[in-house]
Amino acid sequence: MSIHEVEIESLNGGPARLAQYEGKAVLVVNVASRCGLTPQYAGLEKLHERYAERGFTVLGVPCNQFMGQEPGTSEEIAEFCSATYGVTFPMTEKVEVNGAGRHALYEELADTADAEGHSGDIRWNFEKFLVGPDGAVAARFAPQTEPDDAALTAAIEGVLPR
């Protein structure tokens, strides 16, 4: 199954329609507003802007499973991201990425191993999954991997639609 078939709501309500990303590269990131890694929003926005015209988007997926670091409502999350970091990339509803309530999107993503061989449960906020235009997971990156990391940007460039 590809992520394009997964149903998820957008942060502002209504379906996020992951099928709209068919033929595009997507960096799926579980995000949080009150985390030490939250400043990565700025770098994620830069990535989104840098590659958007080449068929790429960042997709933010709020999650409150890591020490309650995303406690806000959808409206509060949207306002924070926009006002603080100028985020323009799409965001989904708040979901669970681990455990019995794991969202179907993360059921598709979690089995992919990162460069160190970690697969399975999401370790922390800002874990990143690069999905190719065909909807298959191309790479996984640890939460501490900064958006401007050379390995991450090379992986993005490697899956951009031609």
Question: Would you mind describing this structure in some detail?
Answer:
- It comes from Streptomyces albiaxialis.
- GO terms for molecular function: peroxidase activity.
- This is Glutathione peroxidase.
- It holds the Pfam family GSHPx.
- This protein is an alpha+beta fold and 162 residues long.
- The chain has one domain (3-159): Glutaredoxin, CATH 3.40.30.10.
- It has helices at residues 40-51, 74-85, 104-109, 150-159; strands at residues 25-31, 56-62, 128-131, 137-141.
- The chain has a 4-stranded mixed β-sheet, covered by helices on one side.
- The longest helix has 12 residues, at 40-51.
- The radius of gyration is 14 Å and the shape is globular.
- The model has no long low-confidence stretch (mean pLDDT 95).
CATH architecture verdict = 3-Layer(aba) Sandwich
Mean pLDDT: 95
Query: What is the chain-wise order of helices and strands?
Result: EHEHHEEH
Uncertain residue segments: none
InterPro entries: Glutathione_peroxidase (IPR000889), GPX_AS (IPR029759), Thioredoxin-like_sf (IPR036249)
Family: Belongs to the glutathione peroxidase family.
Keywords: Oxidoreductase, Peroxidase
GO molecular function, one term: peroxidase activity
